[in-house]
Amino acid sequence: MTLKIGIIGCGGIANGKHLPALSKIKEVEVVAFCDLNEERAIKDAKEFGSADAKVFTDYQEMLKEDLDIVHVCTPNSSHAPLTIAALEAGNHVMCEKPMAKTAAEARAMIAAAKKSGKKLTIGYQNRFRKDSQYLHEVCSQGELGEIYFAKAHAIRRRAVPTWGVFLDEEAQGGGPLIDIGTHALDLTLWMTNNYRPKYVVGNAYRKLADQENAANAFGPWDPKKYTVEDSAFGYIVMEDGSTIFLESSWALNSLDVKEAKTTLCGTLGGADMNHGLTINGEDHQMLYQKEIDLSIGGADFFEGDNGNDSSLNEAHSWINAILNDTDPVVLPEQALVVTEILEAIYKSSKENQPIFFNQGGKK
Ligand SMILES: NC(=O)c1ccc[n+]([C@@H]2O[C@H](COP(=O)([O-])OP(=O)(O)OC[C@H]3O[C@@H](n4cnc5c(N)ncnc54)[C@H](O)[C@@H]3O)[C@@H](O)[C@H]2O)c1
Q1: What is the pLDDT of residues 139-160, one digit of tens each?
Q2: Measured from the CB, is residue 221 less than 6 Å from ligand 1?
Q3: Entry pTM
Q4: Most CB atoms closer than 10 Å: which of 40, 59, 246, 328?
């Protein structure tokens, strides 16, 4: 059986992740391409589409096609409406991260998935890196003991995304916190398997965004279009008393640069994701640290494991969940909690006070 896929949004992430990965999976074909910019859809249909692939500029027209799966790869403000429409049209949906601009939208996406009986997942591909897979195994086995302090890292020194609408508050709902902080927090919550926040204290800053002709990996930004924060920090206390410190920036005067990484501190040991993965602890009254060699094979976490190609591992895992009718690795309920915490950090910053969650993890 060949599953038919439609893509909405033929920009950076569709071309950098989804389409190259899907083109390597024999059980699927991409038959429909939609973008407001028709040229982008035509180009991708030629490069990645089936022989009879169709091109659309209106997603509602695309959803009339006979599809099995839709990938939503558009800016954050459209994640909820497009995902809900695709689910209601009877498709399984992979939506890019962050799940949505607001927690209310994310909840509506989950309700639509439940109603339709179709699967919904979010594009947190960092879970599918080898270091993440290994560390998740370590945590699942309880080898670090009780993890009571963690740091979620998403720090860039000068790498402000200047393409598309990343700097636009209305289109994206925020800056580095919602853009890359979301990956770091997702990884950290997944490792600790703790989705019950108690309260959050946060601060978002717009301090470097007014610089003209700034040094930047993606070229100088336009300060007038920069309506989101340039860094944000959150202190998250969970119901069980454990703490997570989340740090995120696109531009920060720091040499301690780390993105989509977590640091875990438990009663039996700790873990640091630096250039690789280091596990530390105490043994026979001596301290030890071991570097995990991720360069060699022999640790297949998924059927058809593809080494450190997190995009391909993510796509394989998602398609296998549909073929085998199992839960996807990234559950929408988990992505909702990430969105709830990010929203609370923004709210805390605006209101200058801690934001408490109700028991059970909902605000
Ligand atoms: N998983 C990751 O690590 C990762 C990395 C980059 C971006 N993303 C996410 O992917 C999404 C898109 O980012 P990008 O870098 O590809 O942006 P982009 O600007 O390069 O591409 C977005 C595309 O969507 C199209 N589009 C916008 N609204 C549309 C609509 N209603 N219907 C059809 N097409 C529409 C635009 O014309 C554009 O071509 C964002 O939500 C972003 O957070 C995820």
Answers
A1: 999 999 999 999 999 999 999 9
A2: no
A3: 0.96
A4: 246
